[in-house]
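The protein record quoted for completeness.
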Amino acid sequence: MPEQTALAQQFPPQFVWGVATSAYQIEGAATEGGRAPSIWDTFSHTPGKILDHSNGDVACDHYHRYAEDVEHIANLGLDAYRFSVSWSRVQPDGSGAWNEEGMEFYARLIQALAQKNIRAHMTLYHWDLPQALQEQGGWLNRQTAQHFARYAQEMAARFGNQLASIATHNEPWCTANLGHGTGQFAPGMQDEVAALQVSHHLLLSHGLAIQAMRAQNISAQLGIVLNQWTADPATDSEADCAAAAWEYARSVQWFMDPIFRGHYPELALAKIDRSRFLVEPEDMQVIQQPLDFLGVNYYFRAYISTETPPRIPAATLGLTDMGWEIYPEGLSRLLIGIHQEYKDLGLPPIYITENGMAVADQLVGEQIHDAARIDYMQRHFQEVAKAIAAGVNIQGFFYWSLLDNFEWNSGYLRRFGLIYVDYVSQRRIWKDSAIWFKSFVQKFKTRRR
């Protein structure tokens, strides 16, 4: 790997470096300030759903400690902060009245970021649907897309000229498949047909929201954040190659094709019961809205084997604490691939909106020595630089995550943060990776000047 200065020099001068979080994972204050329950409140309080039997009631207490956390971002020397809004904090029922106390929290956060010259990147939906809407059918109810568009319009009207960007959804694949297909995530449904319909309603809500926000004539860039991966056949057998192509179609292309081509991929459609997949005639035109940016989240590749038992990858760089293969080269291959496939179809500039590693961090004295995370960051930064050199228009990178946090159904057992959180005292302690990242950004900014 190149040393820090050489690596920093591989990025264009205006490249944006930031960190990312999400509302339910860090905010806490679950019942304060007029906030109503979301599906994750309900799910995490259901016995057996979270590995350590925890919930997000307190999490990182960011609701009360946001100023401290903004100070950490500033001290890291970063340009940008990507966060999400708790929909049920600003609109408790997901429709109807707005909660001004909740709105004021985000106003204070955005102001604190502005005072430190940190650009605010807002995500409207990071999986925490108001429970009131779930009781009306949630994302299986087409009307939820209309409610989402009105929510987006209001947030854009209030904050759109104070934000660098607004993303409609974070990882709709997870909302659809993990929330409604396998039941691992809220709301905990296990119905593959429902998952397909939810994915369509999510995309529809995205298109409606982009239209509603465009009408506000705001300065914020508008886009969506998709989790993506390469799908690599374990062998060159016809069966493995076909299975890998289907995996790519049902994951990456399932969301990219409607946005950039105006239709779902035929390879994926061929395997579903279309009589139970309801799409109105005008839907695809609504979904296919021009975007200002595309957010790409990358953590691992899909390694596809049709053998019994299936082959597993060698994982030469090891596994993260989530059990995910560390495969940095998949990031550059993914980026170059989607650039080649969609560059003539309106593909906008790309931001890497999430990339990071869970490590079993140990607090030793007042230090956390996470050399594996530093190596992970270096390798993935190098792959982004490789994609830029190949002609992909990538304008920024947001590390996941600023803080250790509530890691969904893993509870507090997995730590992704640059900053260690003692969940009892709420102390924040910089890991070695945070110190390394600050040094890297300083070297990058020296080049920028």
Remarks:
- The chain has a mean pLDDT of 97.
- The first strand starts at residue 16 and ends at 20.
